[in-house]
Specification:
The complex is a heterodimer of chains A (269) and B (411). By secondary structure, chain A is α/β, with parallel strands linked by helices. Chain A has 12 helices and 9 strands. In chain A, helix 2 packs parallel to helix 4, helix 10 (219-226) packs parallel to helix 12 (248-265) and helix 11 runs antiparallel to helix 12 (248-265). Chain A is globular, with a radius of gyration of 17 Å. The chains are: A alpha/beta (269), B alpha/beta (411). At the A-B interface, helix 3, helix 5 and strand 6 of A face helix 2, helix 9 and strand 11 of B. Bound molecules: pyridoxal-5'-phosphate (PLP).
Amino acid sequence: MTNALLDQTLAAAKAENRAALIGYLPAGFPTVAGAAQAVQALIDGGADVVEIGLPHSDPVLDGATIQTADDIALRGGVRTKDVLETIRTVTAANPTVPVLCMTYWNPVDRYGQARFAADLAAAGGAGCILPDLPVEEADEWLAAAAEQGLATVFVVAPSSRDERLAVITAKGTGFVYAAAVMGVTGTRAQVGDMAEDLVARTRATTELPVCVGLGVSNAVQAAEVAAFADGVIVGSAFVQRILDASSPEAGYAAVRELTAELAQGVRKR
Amino acid sequence: MSDVTSVPDARGYFGAYGGRFIPEALVAAVEQVADEYEKAKADPAFAAELNTLLKDYTGRPSPLTDVHRFSAEAGGARILLKREDLNHTGSHKINNVLGQALLTRRMGKTRLIAETGAGQHGVATATAAALFGMDCTIYMGEVDTQRQALNVARMRMLGAEVVPVKSGSRTLKDAINEAFRDWVANVDSTHYLFGTVAGPHPFPMMVRDFHRVIGQEARAQVLDRTGKLPDAVVACVGGGSNAMGVFYDFIPDAGVRLIGIEAAGEGVETPKHAATLTKGDPGVLHGSRTYVLQDEDGQTIESHSISAGLDYPGVGPEHAFLKDSGRAEYRPCTDADAMEALRLLSRTEGIIPAIESSHALAGALKLGRELGPDAVILVNLSGRGDKDMHTAAQYFGLLDDSAADAAGGAK
Ligand SMILES: Cc1ncc(COP(=O)(O)O)c(C=O)c1O
């Protein structure tokens, strides 16, 4: 089962002969109340799809920038129900923008898989990205997600062998998240040359769009990735803009500006 | 009981616990470890080389010591200590490290990384890196680098890089997070030499297997010494490696109670403890499903213990399985009781135990009083206390003009 809005959005970008721009920000950041505004800035700047992160105490796959944001969010008291509420606020204001929840597995496990899927769908969410849930452990979740019309996006890595790519893409829906580098989230000077090869190997196993994330932070890199991928995923660069800003409002403006630059980048393939 | 000892299954599950909850970037590396371990197990040369190291480098078999004066304080029950503190580097950790270091060489990798709490696993890993000519980076929570400063110096002396981890609780949990981040980025050259029976499959099984020698030796030694099996085997549980090592060969012996002692910090009725099996709930942390100290939302709760090596909000999945199946029992022990046991063993036997191991000793004192003078209790003395003298000196006021108070144990 898949999510129609997400599929249509990615197909529309493809029809325009461009890559989609996918923006990430964690819920609860910079504050529980301000998170929806931060995400709105992504959308106003031109993001096609947004990912709202569920902050976690142990973000093993995140570098210093998103760790800091998660810390701020958790110290600010963000709860799982607040994450769902932020998603609800964003989807209510932007019914044509697919909103995914990006989360480590334990919070979903703790909430209850079926209950999380139902509540995410009720909040208007389009699906989940689950970076530490391997396909081997995902059957129960996949059934719950399918029942609610949610997409489940799996991550593939440069270290994934071809046979394994086929196993992963057979179970995933929406799109495939290709990690550009071996490493954690964070901005990087170079996107790396492993991404293109990984996208090609992934495409050989699936019709799903393949979107690339990890390390992309500016329009030039976005254009580079857009040349071979269906979508460009950016997270840490947005978080950094908010961390660097003198006020939340200045942060949202900076996010809007960066999104607009990146949106031009993904149209320059 | 064969159903207990044959675990885990092919997917790494001990009943409902274990598995492999890891990012895709690490799947190939973890599968490589599992494959190489299976090959090594089938290779007599691997066992031969490991056994030679255990004998000539570590000093195995470790002795079994009758502690008569200490036993008198335990209701007269006969307490036997398995002396892992006498291993080279000063704890049980070296058993697993040498096994995994040999495996690393077989995989053609040249760099070891590890997490450490008390610093004993870090020291053991740095030692193996020196012995095998490998690069070595150790992640250690900043709090732990302060309370176990001696071990930081030892690791650096051995040529390892020690990275103080400043995120989260700045203890063992966060050191593990940071080691995983390093591994994801450097997996081609690097083996993550995980230091306890937690983590993704095959680590819980493999680390247990490398420590199994503790229980194999001890079982034969106790039989030889006393003519029977012990009534109980007691070990401290942080992640649970020394406990799994000493427990494992006793699992089929239904008459032998297996008792793990968790760190209760300031008390399990307070928020400041590390008693994961006593107070936690099933969840996923650091690659496996197990008991976790977590809040309603599945966020990990920071643990607290005077002992850096037990200050961890997770626990190995096989312990979760042994708890649920009833084959093992898990009890909490406070900082205060552990420190009292540390002092008692020092004063009655001339053996200064690690604070981690002191939790097991405190558990044995209590158990001995419950079981009475006919009981034989095997305690795994997992490490020696040199590294803890700073904490002990502060706790008991051992230095300068406060030294006089020490005899009375004044805090
Ligand atoms: C002496 C000693 N005992 C016990 C432990 C706890 O680890 P585990 O529960 O894996 O045996 C440590 C860990 O640092 C240790 O140094």
